[in-house]
Automatic annotation (TrEMBL):
<feature type="binding site">
    <location>
        <position position="282"/>
    </location>
    <ligand>
        <name>NADPH</name>
    </ligand>
</feature>
<dbReference type="GO" id="GO:0141153">
    <property type="term" value="F:glycerol-3-phosphate dehydrogenase (NADP+) activity"/>
</dbReference>
<dbReference type="GO" id="GO:0005975">
    <property type="term" value="P:carbohydrate metabolic process"/>
</dbReference>
<feature type="active site" description="Proton acceptor">
    <location>
        <position position="192"/>
    </location>
</feature>
<feature type="binding site">
    <location>
        <position position="106"/>
    </location>
    <ligand>
        <name>sn-glycerol 3-phosphate</name>
    </ligand>
</feature>
<keyword id="KW-0444">Lipid biosynthesis</keyword>
<comment type="function">
    <text>Catalyzes the reduction of the glycolytic intermediate dihydroxyacetone phosphate (DHAP) to sn-glycerol 3-phosphate (G3P), the key precursor for phospholipid synthesis.</text>
</comment>
<dbReference type="InterPro" id="IPR011128">
    <property type="entry name" value="G3P_DH_NAD-dep_N"/>
</dbReference>
<dbReference type="GO" id="GO:0051287">
    <property type="term" value="F:NAD binding"/>
</dbReference>
<keyword id="KW-1208">Phospholipid metabolism</keyword>
<feature type="binding site">
    <location>
        <position position="106"/>
    </location>
    <ligand>
        <name>substrate</name>
    </ligand>
</feature>
<dbReference type="InterPro" id="IPR036291">
    <property type="entry name" value="NAD(P)-bd_dom_sf"/>
</dbReference>
<feature type="binding site">
    <location>
        <begin position="8"/>
        <end position="13"/>
    </location>
    <ligand>
        <name>NAD(+)</name>
    </ligand>
</feature>
<feature type="binding site">
    <location>
        <position position="139"/>
    </location>
    <ligand>
        <name>sn-glycerol 3-phosphate</name>
    </ligand>
</feature>
<feature type="binding site">
    <location>
        <position position="137"/>
    </location>
    <ligand>
        <name>sn-glycerol 3-phosphate</name>
    </ligand>
</feature>
<keyword id="KW-0520">NAD</keyword>
<feature type="domain" description="Glycerol-3-phosphate dehydrogenase NAD-dependent C-terminal">
    <location>
        <begin position="181"/>
        <end position="321"/>
    </location>
</feature>
Length: 337
């Protein structure tokens, strides 16, 4: 049994805390909201994020970051990308010994263009970090809490750290593989949300299954193109954290990115969509970051660029699709090399 802290009591942090608590680990879930910590401790529910779930009795919550920091030998960071800097910065003021960090956030910071593990390293001191492991893959919280079979990947430059995280989380319904390709895993996890927004848009336009299959495969082509240029292993993009997560996010009604895209495709404006969602839609900020990365690395990313125009330059979704279809003729495979 290990002492583990999970930072962030949204749907994913809570679902992972349940997996850990059910595995017998002494798990403490941190939220920045006292009322939510009280609900988790007294009612054993987290209704805003997982309305039908009863939390295990051994799962405790706290609103004290100091208590949370002291508790875990392993600290799982499960806040949205935009909160990573702030939360890790606060953590850095409290850490007195090195910890094993696991992050599960799927994004890239616009402008700095840092991946999550890079952001974490920038926000804390090297001596405070034992190792960083990224846990990613096709895994909607709503299905994990139902104990439906789920497979993910733990990636780290340190195989020992990845295996430690594999052991912490692995259960009968939660299977964890290891990978040493942190870049590929982080890029795949972040960029699939961009394509999922686009898939939601084409569904909102009622364009059907051919369009969605095209988005998934051509989306993977452009994610791979960028990810390989940034140093990722091409095979990673065909795995759970690439193709696997792309499939689940582009096709599941649980996906907040797909749902947001669907509303955009039906004609709602971005601010109206985000107001209605009430949960993080990572793909919006990641579209900006991916657009900037494509320019920086001089990689053609037509789907990302089209989505950028829709989200930030008010292009009509139907016009964006029309323009994608009449682009210059291309070879399918040569473009990937
Ligand atoms: N929901 C899911 O099924 C999965 C989510 N993820 C990733 O996990 C990350 C977190 O997502 P969710 O839990 O789904 O989001 P969510 O929207 O359900 O919850 C986000 C949580 O973060 C908290 N938060 C926001 N800003 C904060 C701040 N500055 N300080 C402290 N806490 C703050 C919110 O209060 C909320 O509890 C995202 O990067 C997402 O892409 C990854 C895999 C699956
Ligand atoms: O990453 C996820 C599933 O693997 C969750 O996707 P959404 O953030 O779109 O809900």
């Amino acid at each position: 049994m290990e002492q583990v802290t999970v930072l962030g009591a949204g749907s994913w942090g809570t679902a992972l805390a349940i997996v850990l608590a059910e595995n017998g680990h002494d798990t403490l879930l941190w939220t920045h909201r006292q009322d939510q910590a009280d609900e988790i401790n007294n009612e054993h529910t987290n209704k805003k994020y997982l309305p039908s779930t009863v939390l295990p009795a051994n799962l405790r919550a706290t609103a004290s970051l100091e208590e949370a920091t002291k508790h875990g030998k392993t600290i799982v960071v499960a806040v949205p990308t935009k909160a990573i800097r702030e939360v890790c910065g606060e953590l850095s003021k409290l850490l007195t010994e090195p910890k094993l960090f696991v992050h599960v956030s799927k994004g890239i910071e616009p402008d700095s263009l840092l991946r999550i593990s890079e952001l974490m390293k920038e926000s804390m001191k090297p001596e405070q970090i034992e190792e960083i492991v990224v846990l990613s893959g096709p895994s909607h919280a709503e299905e994990v809490v139902l104990q439906h079979p789920t497979t993910v990947t733990a990636a780290s430059e340190s195989l020992a750290a990845a295996e430690k995280v594999q052991d912490l989380f692995m259960s009968q319904y939660f299977r964890v593989y290891t990978n040493d390709d942190v870049i590929g895993v982080e890029i795949g996890g972040a960029l699939k949300n961009v394509i999922a927004l686009a898939a939601g848009i084409t569904d909102g336009l009622s364009y059907g299954d051919n369009a969605k299959a095209a988005l998934i495969t051509r989306g993977l082509a452009e994610i791979t193109r960028l990810g390989v240029k940034m140093g990722g292993n091409p095979f990673t993009f065909a795995g759970l954290t690439g193709m696997g997560d792309l499939i689940v996010t582009c096709t599941s009604v649980h996906s907040r990115n797909w749902r947001a895209g669907n509303m955009l495709g039906k004609g709602l404006k971005l601010n109206e969509v985000l107001e209605q969602m009430g949960m993080v839609v990572e793909g919006v900020r990641t579209t900006k970051a991916a657009y900037q990365l494509a320019q920086k690395h001089d990689v053609p990313m037509p789907l990302t660029t089209a989505l950028y125009e829709v989200l930030f330059n008010d292009k009509e979704p139907k016009q964006a699709v029309d323009e994608l279809m009449i682009r210059m003729k291309k070879a399918e495979i040569d473009e990937l090399r």
